[in-house]
Amino acid sequence: MGLPGALDSWGSGAPSHEWMISHISLLIRAALVTFLFVLPSYSPAGAPKSKAVATLDAVDLTGKHWNKGAMTARVILIEFWGTWCGGCLKDHADLRELRHRYKESGFEILGLVHDQLSVEDLKAWLSKHEVDWPQVYDAPAEKSHLLAPFKCTYFPSYILIGRSGEVLDVHKGPIRWRNETMLRLLESACRQPVEASRK
Question: Which residues lie closer than 8 Å to 197 by C-beta, 6 or more apart?
Answer without folding.
Answer: 72, 73, 162, 163, 164
